[in-house]
Each structure stands twice: as structure tokens, then as C-alpha cells.
Design brief:
This protein is mainly alpha-helical. The protein has one domain. Helices cover 82% and strands 0% of the residues. It is built from 4 helices and no strands. Helix 1 runs antiparallel to helix 2. It is elongated, with a radius of gyration of 34 Å. It starts with 11 loop residues before the first helix and ends with a helix.
Length: 148
Amino acid sequence: MYDLSRRIVLSFRLEILIFILATATCSLLLFAMRSGKIRGGFVAMWLSVCLLIGSLPFLESFYGGIATFIGMKYAIDMLFMFAILFLMVYVFYLTAKLQRIMDVVEILASRAAIVESHLALMNETKKNQASTISGQLEGGGVDEQANG
């Protein structure tokens, strides 16, 4: 199954450090979620990464067995593969999100152009009405003087 001679042995201090860093990151993520700074979907995504990294010291032989089954030499290679896969999925997600934002910006720009054209038309109509009214007032005053 998994050849323990090929296992990368982590020192006890390194295992403790990895566990502490993963626990601290998970705690920060949960605090950020409770305070409303990060949405739940993002927290779930990053918590899964923290749990994967935090479980490395305890489940290294398990990851090594999976890596051997897949055809990789070391468990750490499999974790790098998962990290690259995670980043690819995340970049795809961000690309889809960016496309949605670009679609919304395009719609808002077209609506702003429509509103701007309506405002220009309204301003032109008001100017025409004002000039017509002022012309009538000036003309009416001249007629009254001529009649008087």
C-alpha cells in the first residue's frame, strides 16, 4: 500500500506549527464571518483549505496512501496538485463573477445613456417653453401699450 520509507517526516515542532496556523486561520475566518466581513460561501471555501492543511500532520499516511493510489510519489505532491486545482476552480469562479459584473455595468451604462438623453430632451423642451412664454409676455406688453 503506502511505503513508509518514502514518507516525508515532519518534525513534531513543524506539525504543531502547522496545526496552530491552521487553527488561527480558521478562527479568523469564523470571526470575519460573524462580523459580516466575509460571506458564508467564501468562509466555507477557505475553511476547507485550512482543514486540509491542518490535517496534514495527523493524516499524512492517509494522504500518502491516496497519493500512491493516484500514482504520485509523495503525499505533498498530491497536496500541491489539490492546491493548483483549487486555484484553477477559484480563478474560474472569479472569471464568472467578473463576467456578471461586466454585464451589469453594460446594462447600467445603457440605462444611464437613456436617462441622459431624456434629461437633455426635457431641458430642451423647458427652454422652448420658457422662450415661448417670455415672447408672449413681451408681445402682450407691446400690444397693450399700442392699444392704450
